[in-house]
Write a structure and sequence with these properties.
single chain; 404 residues; eight-stranded mixed sheet; seven-stranded mixed sheet; 15 helices; 15 strands
Length: 404
Amino acid sequence: MGDKTSYFPLGQANLLPREEMLEVGRPKKKLSIGIPKETSQFENRVALTPQGVELLVANGHTVIFETGAGDRAHYFDHDFAECGAQIVSQKSAALKADIILKVSSLTNDELEQLSPNQLIISLLNLHNQSRSSIQKMLDRRLNAIAFELLKDDNGCYPVIRSMSEIEGTTAVMVAGEYLSKAHNGKGVLLGGVTGISPSELVILGAGTAAEYAAKAAIGLGASVKVFDNSYHDLRELERNVGQRIFTSVLHPQALSKALQSADAVLGNLRYLQPGRAFIITEEQVAQMKKGSIIIDLSMDEGGCFETSRCTNLDDPVYIRHGIIHYCVPNVASRVSRTSSIALSNIFAPIILRLGEAGGVHHLIKEDVGLSHGMYLYKGILTNSHIGRHFNLPYKDIGLLMAAF
């Protein structure tokens, strides 16, 4: 038989039961979150509400608010202080936090006050961004997430969808206001009543904003027509609206006919051509009914109409060819409190996950949606679209994760 040890080459001791070795959990990180006051005159939203602050503070994080940061959303310093936020009078104090959470992009003056490895979560808005600002962020070795590029577990863009829902509904309210005599409109009710033909709303694009605009308009009794080049998107919109409505591809003859009879036209077509997104010519606009209104929700992409020019919330409309034009690029800021709640509902859980993971460097390895929104990592550009747009070198974030 030979020696017994030949049957047990590892020895008897190795066959005895042992204690299971458990993975040591990653230590949680207590984060500081700075909320500087928005410097843009027409940005009324705030990235965290008092309820969001309360949730973060209860989990051991520190939230630092610059005084007055929530005033335009009708949230005041005492509201945040009561929920555990630190209120500071100097912007520089808020900009020293681990995470800088802001709606609009940071200004050059704000970027000058940041230190390496801080994390910025804000709107990128590439069309209004400059190469020098991106270069300054690279030089300061910052981490940055564009919240419009964040994805959820279903592959959707939660911030874009949430703001689009708000913008679509708000656009219908705006149309109703400017068609009324109160705003020197032609005195038309956006909707329908017994014995009177309903007003007509034409929607260009079948995205989320279009869906919610259609729902709001149908609820008022208006006749709705939706145009888009994607048959799939048109079918999805009709399914989500819950009833059969007029839908069509962007056929020139059918579109021109619809525009001529429309009381309101909402443009929400995206990603057409950089710098020249319009599909409705000035000639087509001139043939519309006098006193009707155009609402262009694609201003950050260049606009849907040849006659569109960017306006703001203080001076939102102008008249061209007898047609009212409403071309405000941040319509969601018009209902700033509602929009702030929507943003806070997205950002507060993300920050909690950052703390649980021990920081952004760990979480982006696990969260594909978060890494999709990251365009700067340790001072390295990781977004190919930004790199090509500004002719800057970039690297794939997956390769960087393997290196760090």
